[in-house]
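Hi support team,

I've been running sequence recovery on a batch of backbones for a student project. Most finish fine, but this one hangs at about 90% for roughly twenty minutes before it completes. I'm not sure whether the input is malformed or the queue is just slow. I've pasted the structure tokens below so you can try to reproduce it. Let me know if you need the job ID as well.

Thanks,
M.K.
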């Protein structure tokens, strides 16, 4: 048994920490699915009940969408004020047949907790909950004034959260925001993320006729919606892989030579990375390293495409309509709304004669960069040194957490992204997992970060 009261609690409660996370993972809180509304609320209620029970002033708060969990425990004597943000909603589990176990019946396989939300983000945000509760149990009080803000709409782009944060600004005031919703480097190299990408998401719908046409009777004399759409999508990039939308790169900030040198020092093996993604080529913008493209360059992808005959067998038809979902990941200093307009205009310019185009703007989110010298980053790095015995590596990601930029702007606060997961966690994918050791490490790193913040 350890002399450190925190370590003693962590040892004693280890089983409990795992079982309680399992209970949270059993709730299918899929934010995009209207049929899961009640389950989403049940996940929020479960978090509120646990935090209230531990002495937090806790409640679900209405935002107009799925509720947020707001829980505060404040001494108010000038100790640092910390806000921990995370999300309790999850992505849909489909395709279900590719899971080796029920996505909402967690189990430990190969040393990892397997369930939808295990890593993204229930496991990571819950590690903070357990870290705080362990500190409370060990010392009778927290070393910081702590607020949990755990939302239920991150996976649908947080549509109601920023206006709510703006209204509730005063209750959310903090010196540091901690977020764990990302991945460490391979071989469990601990990381702190300082850059997130923004995003703009469009749906393009084309129509070439008011009804499908016989391809023999009409072929050779009419436009084809599926072919028109293919032409348009193909024109979004040039043959080398650069995005061909005029003006797309205008606001992109070049990284400094210092950052490029820093990127070259990140332990990253392109071949292992490609193998873990299951791909046989790594195409993209020419003249840039793979890591530079993944972390610092804007991207454009077709997320889905449909139209025309999709059934078995053959049907000789010229489709009248087709659609595609297209999204871009954005970097400093691109403006998501401006990029959406540029992409829309370019798609319209590319439309072949007789092709009617409709573009629906689905969502937008800002990119974010965090400072590397704030008190939050220093405390998180100190906690990592204590727990892992090594320094963290500073990384960026191609992923997006849209509310982070809003928190920085509305609360004028430092946001620290303290990664607990792994890139191999299969987030959004079948058999999502969170390494069991890394979950317990996350609890410890969270508690040590709060202690380091209190030491100043
Ligand atoms: N946790 C992820 C973001 C992430 C992914 C961070 C990979 C680091 C590495 C988050 O839950 C997420 O999936 N965000 C969405 C945002 C979108 C729905 C607006 C994303 O990035 O697609
Ligand atoms: Mn997430
Ligand atoms: Mn996600």
């Amino acid at each position: 048994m350890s002399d450190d009261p925190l370590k003693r609690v962590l040892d004693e409660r280890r089983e409990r920490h795992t079982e309680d996370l399992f209970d949270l993972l059993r709730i299918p809180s899929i934010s995009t699915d209207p049929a899961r509304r009640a389950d989403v609320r049940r996940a929020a209620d479960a978090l509120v009940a646990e935090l209230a029970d531990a002495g937090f002033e806790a409640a679900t708060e209405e935002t107009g969408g799925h509720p947020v969990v707001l829980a505060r425990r404040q001494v108010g004597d000038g100790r640092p004020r910390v806000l921990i943000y995370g999300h309790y909603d999850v992505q849909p589990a489909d395709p279900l047949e590719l899971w080796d176990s029920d996505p909402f019946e967690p189990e430990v396989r190969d040393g990892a907790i397997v369930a939808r939300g295990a890593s993204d983000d229930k496991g990571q945000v819950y590690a903070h909950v357990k870290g705080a509760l362990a500190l409370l149990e060990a010392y009778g009080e927290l070393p910081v004034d702590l607020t949990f803000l755990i939302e239920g709409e991150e996976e649908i782009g947080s549509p109601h959260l920023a206006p709510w944060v703006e209204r509730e600004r005063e209750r959310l005031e903090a010196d540091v925001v901690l977020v764990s919703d990302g991945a460490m480097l391979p071989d469990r190299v601990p990381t702190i993320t300082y850059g997130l990408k923004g995003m703009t998401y469009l749906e393009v719908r084309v129509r070439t006729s008011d009804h499908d046409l016989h391809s023999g009777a009409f072929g050779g004399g009419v436009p084809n919606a599926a072919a028109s759409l293919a032409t348009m999508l193909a024109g979004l990039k040039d043959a080398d892989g650069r995005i061909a939308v005029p003006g797309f790169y205008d606001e992109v900030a070049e990284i400094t030579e210092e950052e490029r040198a820093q990127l070259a020092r990140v332990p990253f093996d392109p071949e292992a990375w490609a193998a873990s993604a299951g791909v046989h080529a790594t195409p993209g913008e020419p003249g840039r390293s793979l890591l530079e493209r993944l972390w610092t360059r804007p991207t454009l992808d077709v997320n889905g495409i449909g139209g025309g005959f999709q059934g078995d067998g053959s049907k000789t038809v010229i489709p009248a309509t087709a659609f595609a979902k297209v999204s871009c990941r954005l970097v400093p200093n691109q403006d998501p709304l401006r990029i959406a307009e540029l992409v829309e205009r370019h798609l319209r310019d590319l439309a072949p004669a007789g092709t009617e185009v409709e573009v629906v703007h689905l969502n937008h989110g800002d990119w974010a960069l965090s400072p590397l010298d704030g008190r939050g980053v220093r405390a998180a790095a100190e906690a990592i040194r204590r727990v892992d015995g090594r320094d963290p590596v500073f990384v960026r990601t191609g992923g997006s957490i849209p509310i982070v930029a809003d928190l920085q702007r509305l609360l004028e606060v430092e946001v620290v992204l303290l990664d607990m997961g792994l890139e191999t966690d299969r987030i959004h994918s079948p058999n999502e997992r969170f390494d069991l050791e890394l979950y317990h490490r996350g609890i410890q790193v969270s508690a040590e970060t709060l202690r380091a913040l209190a030491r100043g």
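--
Follow-up from support: It reproduced on our side and the slowdown came from queue contention, not your input. The mean pLDDT is 97. No action needed from you.
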